[in-house]
Design a protein that fits this description.
four-stranded mixed beta sheet, alpha+beta, Trna Endonuclease, Chain: A, domain 1, single chain, 5 helices, 4 strands
Length: 155
C-alpha cells in the first residue's frame, strides 16, 4: 500500500471545532471550565506506579466512578445507569492496593484536590473499610499518594 500524499490541492477542509469540543477531544479542560485535577493527579500517580520497579508488581488499580464524564446529560444518564446496574457504588476510594502490609489487609487511597473533602458516602466507606482492617488515606496530590503508598509498603 502506497502512502497517500496530502497537498493543498488534495486536502479536504474539516469543519471548525469549538475550543470546548477540542479540549474535550484532547481530554483537557476548556478555558473557564472545571478542571479535573483529581484525574490529573491520579494519572500521574499511576504513571509512577508503572515506572517504578518497587511498585510494578503490585495488585493496584483504580475504581471507576460515574463522575467527570463528558457528553450531554442523556449520554451521562445512560452511562450512569449502566454503571449502576454493573455494581458501581457511591463512595469507594479511587485507588485500591490489594497487598497486605503492617497488619492491614490492603490500602485504599481517595484522591482529592484543593478544598474538596470526602463526601458523606465516602466517609462511610472509609469508616467501614477501616473497621474491616484496611488502611484508608485521603491524598491531595500525586506526590502525597506516592508517599502514602511507599510508606504503606515499608510497613
Amino acid at each position: 500500500m502506497t502512502p497517500r500524499i496530502v497537498t493543498a490541492a488534495t486536502r479536504h477542509r474539516l469543519p471548525p471545532v469549538s475550543r470546548e469540543r477540542l479540549a474535550e477531544l484532547l481530554g483537557r479542560p476548556a478555558k473557564g471550565k472545571k478542571q479535573y485535577h483529581e484525574h490529573d493527579a491520579q494519572v500521574e500517580f499511576f504513571r509512577r506506579v508503572d515506572a517504578d520497579a518497587r511498585t510494578q508488581h503490585l495488585l493496584i488499580y483504580a475504581v471507576p466512578n460515574a463522575g467527570g464524564y463528558s457528553g450531554g446529560f442523556k449520554a451521562n444518564a445512560v452511562r450512569a445507569a449502566r454503571m449502576k446496574a454493573e455494581g458501581v457504588r457511591k463512595g469507594p476510594p479511587d485507588i485500591n492496593v490489594d497487598e497486605a502490609r503492617g497488619g492491614y489487609h490492603g490500602l485504599r487511597i481517595e484522591m482529592k484536590h484543593g478544598k474538596n473533602r470526602p463526601t458523606p458516602d465516602q466517609r462511610a466507606w472509609h469508616d467501614a473499610l477501616q473497621a474491616r482492617g484496611y488502611a484508608v488515606h485521603v491524598c491531595y496530590s500525586a506526590d502525597a499518594a506516592w508517599a502514602c503508598l511507599l510508606a504503606y509498603l515499608d510497613g
